[in-house]
Amino acid sequence: MKLSKINIEIDKTESEITVIAKIKEQCVRRNKEIVTHDTADIIAKLTEDGICVGDCIQESRLCNTRPQTCIGIWVFENPKLNQPEKTVEKKSYKRKKTRKTEISLDKSTQDVIIGEEETKDNLNIE
């Protein structure tokens, strides 16, 4: 099977690699042979082109007998590169210790003098 006859379009996202593969339809007049390709052939074509892929999420099968089966879509996981994992340090929170303090009032109780108001009732009684 010739892998060079497979036309491949690749769309990459952060988590997935989508591969759309196309082959030419069989021509009865020229007696071309029936060709089928599956996931292993697509992975071989991608590695030949230097593209690394992870596990296959969605697969298809190519066959040149019908126009509907001449196009197939494969979805692969994006391989995890050797990236160092980010370590998150936990901040230790210490409880703030509060001191009990006495709140000073504006005036002390000794300085406060309660005076009687002079009213007409108070003046007439005396």
Which descriptors apply to this entry?
single chain, 126 residues, alpha+beta, 4-stranded antiparallel beta sheet, two-stranded antiparallel sheet, 6 strands
The poorly predicted ranges are: none
- Helix amount: 10-25%
- What is the topology, as strand order, of the major beta sheet? 1-2-6-4
Major sheet summary line: 4 strands, antiparallel
C-alpha termini separation: 129 Å
The coarse overall form would be rod-shaped
Number of helical stretches of at least 4 residues: 2
Bin the strand percentage. Answer: 15-25%
Radius of gyration: 43 Å
Q: Quote the average pLDDT.
A: 77
Order of helical and strand elements? EEEHEEEH
Q: What's the number of extended β-strand segments?
A: 6
- Sheet/helix structural class: alpha+beta
Tell me about this structure.
With 126 residues, the chain is an alpha+beta fold. The protein has a domain of 75 residues. It is 13% helix and 21% strand. It contains 2 helices and 6 strands. The strands form 2 sheets. It has a 4-stranded antiparallel β-sheet with strand order 1-2-6-4, with no helix packed on it. The chain has a two-stranded antiparallel ribbon with strand order 3-5. A hairpin with a 3-residue loop joins strand 1 and strand 2. The longest helix has 10 residues. It is rod-shaped, with a radius of gyration of 43 Å. The mean pLDDT is 77.
